[in-house]
Amino acid sequence: MLIALITAAMIAATPQNDGNVPQLREDNISEVVAAMTPEEKCMLIIGGRAKNFNGIGYINTGVPGAAGVINGIPRYGIPTVILADGPAGLRISPTRENDPLTYYCTGYPIASMLSSTWNIDLVEEAGKSIGNEVLEYGIDVLLAPGANIHRNPLCGRNFEYYSEDPYLTGMMAAAMINGIESNGVGTSLKHFAVNNQEFNRLANNSILSERTLREIYLRNFEIAVKESQPWTIMTSYNFINGEHAAESHRLLTDILRGEWGFEGVVMTDWGGGYDEPAIVRAGNEMIQPGGDQKYINVLNAIKDGSLSMEDVDRAVTRILQLVVKTPKFKGYVHSNTPDLAEHAKVCKKVADEGVVLLKNKGAALPVSREQEIALFGTTSYDFIAGGTGSGDVHRPYVVDLMTGLSNLNFKLEKDVTSFYKEFMADEAVRRKRLDGKAKWYIDAERAIEVVPEELIEKASETADAAMITIGRVFGEGKDRDYTHSYCLSKREQELIDRVSKAFHAKGKKLTVILNVGGFVEMTSWQDKADAILLCWQPGQEGGNTVASVLCGEVNPSGHLPSTISTKYELEPTANNFPQVYTYKPFNYSYYRQILHKKLPLHTVKDIDYTLYEEGIFMGYRYFNTCAPEAIAYPFGFGLSYTTFAFKGMKVEPTEGGWNVKVTVTNTGKVAGKDVVQVYVKAPKGKLEKPERELKGFAKTPELAPGQSCEVSIFVSREYLASFNEATNAWEIDKGNYTFVAGQDSIDNSQKVKVKVD
Ligand code: BGC
């Protein structure tokens, strides 16, 4: 009834296209804003899921599978701007009703793998090719990248994020944004901020100190904003110290715009935020994906004066400043035929550099293609390209490891491969039945491990080496289950154990490949494997990438973007991370109850609030400082088939900071690339500091055996500062800082003391 009345009122209030209204141009935005009615302004502020009030708004995105729109208003020449998900590529529907054509998008490696390359240029190149698909499929803004922090290994969306370190995260996100936006399309840096878990994500309150907020959970966004100035930023669902992120004036106006100089548009996450006028007042321009009630709430607030026209006009102006930059506004005619074959090559190239070799005892890898491989593990035959939820891309294919190895002419032990092929066909039937009712937020059922012992025994006689792939897939809407996702199952443990025993008894080696979106428990089984390769979720070319690394055609050069601990319980956040496991998002009904004021907010620890008790001592900042014995594989770690030596480290002052120079020499027998990581250890001062913090990094070019290069890395003085809560300011203590250039976060080989005044 209410909607009907409002609609009727608007029909009367909204002038029809009389030809006398201004048509939007880059230089007449204020004129258009001045001509708009409050109803029209509301249609811009809320997304497209509102009723088509008087022909102003659009419900259809125009591109099936896109996530939303900025409503078009034809009488001012404002086109409908289309927003679609990422980050591991563009997410739109691959097929359309009554249309024989397909609209697949390239499935790139997940963000955690991109950051494992430590190669900014390469990540920018990936961004360029993703952005080309965005442009050619008629999308204006990609809702990516995700720049939240790997605070705990069980976060369901870690795969969409880059690292536990804010500097690495910020630089990677900036490279991705710069690459995508070089196509003249936009991005949305998300989820701003402190959104490091999925459990109860719409209502959870992240409670943390101001220093922790500034140094860890905002620094990532700050760097990304300063280095790339994204077209848009998406606020997160959660509360931060009791205030909803989408409604925080301090976060969105004082810090984001005031301190960091952000010039773009802020939008809510889909359905995030409780109080629409408060969202707009905070400096959040767009409420996505809209909805009738949201429209009505904004309009009523304008009418009763609780939302000022000044706030509304500011929001509308910024939205129109975004609209005029879009391909849609510029009349770009998209082809719907991006060069998918070329992009697949980029996908493989990027994935090749993101594979992390964690262990290589007795030079188990690379293996010669002459050797016969017994390929175990159901995931070897059903590779996982990426995670689930809105970050899942509809890719045209996924190359599994069996195919990847065959493409490179590896010989596979026939009985093992035939067993798996047959078994996987049977499993497909079972999985289909279980997956029949699956929704986007429920992870697809994976095949179980049941290979007969006799087959392992027999293969160990005939094959030259064994390989097992362990797979994990998860995603948006829920966190991972410690028992079923982080730990290996009994059957997986048995498989590793049996294959290891059988092959080792004959002097043959076992490689375990981790095809995962996040870390798994390794302490219990890692000694049974000779080599361990972390190939993450490497995108659609996954099997080809892993095969290239296994045979040595690609020398692994990936380094860990987060620490792998010896035991989950020893993680600094283990006692402050929700431990309630569900197979579907828990939060929605709870959220609604809160909305209707039936439940008090934020009363139960680890259910509706999360204490960031570890403060800034998270990830390697904690492990390296307080618990080195709990490190299984340090932050920044990664092996190669060759060895590198660093020497001659120099730190030269330059404008705004220092240039750190190191000579890297390939001291081994094959060509390869290494990563130089610059950490800074602060002197004892007013504030407690971690043992070291990452302040710069660079990937070397490929170095031939014996070849050297000098790497120069800029360390900004600004990033040496810590946030002092007592003075509410960033401060740099005077004294001697130790600059360390290492291959990982525990390497101390190259150090220089620098006096800072
Ligand atoms: C996710 C966002 C996504 C949006 C639109 C939300 O559920 O948190 O990352 O961009 O949906 O699909």
Task: Give the terminus-to-terminus CA distance.
Answer: 69 Å
Overall 3D shape: globular
Using the CA coordinates, give the radius of gyration.
26 Å
Number of helices: 21
What does it look like?
- By secondary structure, the chain is of the alpha/beta class.
- The strands form 8 sheets. The protein has a 6-stranded mixed sheet with strand order 1-2-5-6-8-11. A 6-stranded mixed sheet has the order 12-17-16-15-13-14, with helices on both faces.
- The relative contact order is 0.11.
- The chain has 21 helices and 29 strands.
- The chain binds beta-D-glucopyranose.
- Beta-D-glucopyranose binds next to loops.
For the structure shown, list the relevant keywords.
6-stranded mixed β-sheet; globular; binds beta-D-glucopyranose; alpha/beta; 757 residues; disordered N terminus; 21 helices; 19% strand
